[in-house]
Write a structure and sequence with these properties.
YojJ-like (1; 11 helices; alpha+beta; two-stranded antiparallel ribbon
């Protein structure tokens, strides 16, 4: 069913729906990448696709031949360049409420120990920074700190962040149910507003959530507040039940503390 014509092109309802669907996909991809270092590459890739379409529409044979030959490596290049962002997209899809209902996550002893530790840090007025690694590799972060390979326990985490401990500066990285390292250095957030809103500890927590799928918990030394960062979203929690909910289900997207 033809809706209208543009020159010699017939535009049907399916064509309109197709364009809308592609526009929504590209727009949401841009929203996911706009605060990452990949946004310029993403814009460049869109321009290449647009140039390829224009070359074919104008019947530019030589330029079209170049783009056709490049198209065989575009998919591989896309996966390599946007690997962290693709992981993040898949993680967000996995955190969808419907997906969670189908496969409910169970609380783990590690989550319980971390929750107890963070609440104890808050009660004592100790600052803390805990990274719970997921799919994104933590090797580069772990190598900046002191390797531990210790079982997770609330008492150990609290002792690490004791101001008299030589390991209290930096972050504790937990992965595969083990404390892999302490005193780790995290990347600071690239968001310009972060310098106005937070100190170094919270900027590091946000920065880690921007560059990985890790869940990061920051305990303020000044106020005792507990803030959880995930996928550039943040949520403040004040009790054990809410902290366990966040550790199990993840930060509510769009929550502002």
């Amino acid at each position: 069913m033809t809706l209208f014509r543009i020159g010699f092109l017939e535009v049907s309802l399916i064509d309109v729906l197709d364009v809308i669907a592609v526009s929504i996909i590209f727009y949401n991809l841009y929203l996911l990448m706009r605060r990452t270092r990949a946004v310029q590459m993403f814009v460049g890739l869109v321009l290449i696709f647009a140039a390829s379409f224009l070359a074919q529409s104008l019947n530019m044979q030589e330029l079209s031949w170049i783009f056709r030959n490049l198209s065989t490596v575009w998919l591989v290049a896309f996966i390599i360049i946007f690997q962290p962002e693709l992981r993040r997209i898949l993680t967000i899809m996995g955190q969808n409420r419907l997906v969670r209902m189908i496969a409910r996550e169970q609380t783990s002893p590690v989550s319980e120990e971390v929750a107890k530790a963070c609440l104890e840090l808050s009660r004592r007025g100790y600052g803390g920074l805990v990274v719970l690694g997921r799919d994104t590799g933590m090797r580069a972060i772990i190598e900046t700190g002191v390797r531990m390979q210790a079982l997770v326990s609330a008492s150990l985490v609290v002792s690490i962040f004791n101001p008299r401990s030589p390991l209290h500066d930096g972050a504790v990285v937990i992965q595969n149910d083990m404390i892999e390292a302490a005193k780790c250095i995290l990347p600071l957030s690239k968001n310009p507003r972060s310098e106005e809103l937070w100190g170094t500890r919270h900027r590091a927590a946000m920065g880690m959530s921007e560059e990985s799928d890790a869940l990061v918990i920051a305990v303020s030394e000044e106020t005792g507040s507990i803030t959880v960062f995930e996928n550039e979203a943040m949520e403040k929690v004040s009790d054990y039940e809410n902290l366990m909910r966040v550790l199990t289900a993840g930060v509510r997207q769009g929550t502002d503390a």
